[in-house]
Amino acid sequence: MKKIEAIILPSQLHSVRSELERRGISAALTLTEVQQRANDKVSVSGGKEMSGPLEVRVKVELLVADRQAQKVMGIILQYAQVATKKIVGHVALLRVSEVLQMVPPLR
After folding, report:
1. Cα separation, 10 vs 31, whole angstroms
2. CA distance 36 to 38
3. What pLDDT sits at residue 44?
4. How far, in whole angstroms, is CA 92 from its chain's centroid?
5. What DSSP character marks residue 23?
6. Is residue 58 within 8 Å of residue 34, measured between CB atoms?
7. Where are the domains of the chain?
8. 69 near 25, Cβ under 8 Å?
9. Nearest to 7 by CA among 58, 52, 55
10. pLDDT for 45
11. CA–CA separation, 53 vs 14, rounded Å?
């Protein structure tokens, strides 16, 4: 199983979600509003406080079968693209060794 985390522009969320549904990817999406530093370069702060304005993004998280991971990443990369030279987000692929379902206790 794989966990995919993507930071995208809020305006691209509908396109990504629609294409995942159209392609039969029925994984539940977890959405979190986050803020990202507006920057056109990747940098590591090294413990220093980063300056510059923060821009609103959406963090999309989902769990998928190993065989679906590359397809999902491709969809996110294609449908979350914007016409700009600055970095607007990223996609991470993480290995998941175990998933536990939380259900109400039996009475």
Report:
1. 10
2. 6
3. 52
4. 7
5. T
6. yes
7. 2-37+55-95
8. no
9. 58
10. 55
11. 25
N- to C-terminal Cα distance for the chain?
31
- Per the listing, tokens 């987000």 go with 89
- Across 9-88, where does the E strand assignment appear? 30-37, 54-64
Amino acid letter, residue 51: S
47 conformational bin, left if phi > 0, alpha if psi -120 to 50, beta if neither: left
Q: Which CATH architecture has domain 2-37+55-95?
A: 2-Layer Sandwich (3.30)
Alpha helix ranges (H) inside 7-103: 13-22, 69-79
- The letter for the amino acid at 98 is E
CA torsion angle for 90, 91, 92, 96 (degrees, to 10)? 150
Contacts of 71 by beta carbon, 8 Å cutoff, 6+ apart: 23, 25
Q: What is the pLDDT of residue 53?
A: 82
pLDDT value of position 89: 85
For the chain, list residues with pLDDT below 50: 42
- What is d(CA 106, CA 18) in angstroms, rounded to the nearest whole number? 36
Q: Which two tokens stand for residue 44?
A: 């590591």
